């Protein structure tokens, strides 16, 4: 796989496929390389940015200057032997340098070309996550009801697009023998991936014709399904059905709520949201979060403490050099490469560089 991407969505896509066993060759600009190499602090002890390290394991690195004829020739040679090329250049950037995806796809029946864009194949707008979050409707529904629009704490539009691209590539690999060259050209848009990720919120708007509101840490369709403050720290209670509601009432020793006909069905709990949430909030302030979680877990009611990132990382295999390890069948085989770390080997052996390591 030839990785001509940079920043987040594309590198995440190629790393995901690399974790699953793909041989990924990352091509970068000489000198600076992928701009996330400079996105810090923090940097590790070797001077590599945490941002870059998070999405670039299981790759080799080759630096090429596409304004140089010899480097363009090498890139074309690598592309002609690749199974997959992934890139996120603005439209026309490669074509102006004689690197034409349609020609390469026509010449190699096994090749799949995936292009990640911000706003579609014809748009020249740069695809920055926070802009996409704003224009996709995410910020309009994120944040406290009376507060300002808020972005998600992770560049999630990039993440969604990267995952969508990996899925699309895998689907195309499984059926490429039946696909025309045009069908083997995949275009993924951050804007479309983000808008599609509205899922039930989008459907609420389509069904009702009404503009979805911001609910903070609550849920537009379920009650109680939100953040509550215990005596010591906040936790999430997520009642997903009426049986869980009755179990919740029993666990927190509020049989009066279980017997109140207004709250027996979720629709009633949504209708009387403010009153019910107020009663529950007062109740939960009476004990520590861990006590509530023990009671709710025994009753089979979904709930969880709001943990710090460091607390969450304690539950997974994670490394400061290679990030959070994938679940099987993925594996971590190589740390993220330094810029042009494998350049001499690739220039000498091409794709054979992987066999030489």
Task: From the structure above, extract its key features.
13% strand, elongated, alpha/beta, 357 residues, six-stranded parallel β-sheet, 17 helices, single chain
Question: Explain this structure to me?
Answer:
The chain is an alpha/beta fold. It is built from 17 helices and 11 strands. The protein has a 6-stranded parallel beta sheet with strand order 3-2-1-4-5-6, sandwiched between helices. Strands 7-8-9 form a 3-stranded antiparallel beta sheet, with helices on one face. The chain has a two-stranded antiparallel sheet with strand order 10-11. It is elongated and about 80 Å long.
Major beta-sheet overview: 6 strands, parallel
> Secondary-structure element sequence?
EHEHEHEHEHHHEHHEEHHHHHEHEEHH
Global structural class: alpha/beta
For this structure, the quaternary state is single chain
Q: Largest sheet, order of strands side by side?
A: 3-2-1-4-5-6
Q: Count the beta strands.
A: 11
Helix content: 25-40%
Produce the secondary structure layout.
Layout: E1 2-4, H1 9-19, E2 24-28, H2 50-53, E3 59-63, H3 69-81, E4 84-87, H4 101-107, E5 112-117, H5 129-135, H6 138-141, H7 156-175, E6 185-189, H8 190-196, H9 199-208, E7 225-229, E8 234-238, H10 242-251, H11 255-259, H12 266-271, H13 273-284, H14 289-298, E9 303-305, H15 309-313, E10 318-319, E11 323-324, H16 343-349, H17 353-356
Parallel strand pairs: 1-2, 1-4, 2-3, 4-5, 5-6
Antiparallel strand pairs: 7-8, 8-9, 10-11
Helix pairs in contact: 1-7, 7-8
């Amino acid at each position: 796989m030839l990785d001509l991407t940079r920043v987040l969505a594309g590198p995440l896509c190629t790393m995901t496929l690399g974790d699953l066993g793909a041989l990924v060759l990352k091509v970068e600009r000489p000198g600076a390389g992928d701009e996330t190499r400079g996105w810090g602090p923090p940097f590790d002890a070797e001077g590599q940015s945490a941002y870059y390290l998070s999405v670039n394991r299981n790759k080799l690195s080759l630096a090429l200057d596409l304004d140089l004829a010899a480097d363009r020739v090498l890139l074309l040679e690598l592309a002609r032997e690749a199974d997959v090329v992934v890139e996120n250049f603005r439209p026309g950037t490669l074509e102006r340098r004689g690197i034409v995806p349609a020609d390469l796809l026509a010449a190699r029946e096994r090749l799949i070309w995936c292009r990640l864009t911000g706003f579609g194949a014809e748009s020249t707008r740069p695809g920055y996550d926070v802009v996409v979050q704003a224009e996709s409707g995410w910020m309009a529904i994120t944040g406290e009801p009376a507060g300002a629009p808020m972005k998600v704490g992770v560049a999630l539009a990039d993440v969604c697009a990267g995952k969508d691209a990996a899925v699309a590539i895998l689907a195309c690999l499984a059926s490429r023998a039946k696909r025309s060259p045009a069908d083997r050209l995949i275009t993924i848009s951050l804007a479309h991936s983000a808008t599609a990720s509205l899922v039930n919120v989008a459907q609420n708007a389509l069904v009702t014709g009404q503009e979805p509101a911001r609910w903070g840490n609550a849920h537009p369709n379920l009650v109680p399904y939100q953040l509550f403050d215990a005596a010591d720290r906040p936790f999430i209670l997520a009642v997903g059905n009426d049986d869980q509601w009755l179990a919740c009432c029993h666990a927190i020793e509020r049989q009066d709520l279980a017997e109140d006909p207004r709250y027996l069905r979720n629709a009633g709990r949504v209708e009387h949201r403010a009153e019910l949430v107020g009663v529950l909030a007062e109740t939960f302030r009476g004990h520590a979060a861990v006590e509530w979680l023990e009671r709710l877990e025994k009753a089979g009611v979904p709930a969880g403490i709001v943990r710090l990132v460091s607390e969450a990382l304690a539950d997974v295999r994670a490394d400061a050099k290679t990030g959070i390890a994938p679940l099987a069948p993925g594996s971590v085989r190589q740390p993220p490469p330094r810029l042009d770390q494998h350049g001499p080997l690739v220039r000498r052996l091409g794709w054979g560089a992987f066999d030489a390591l």
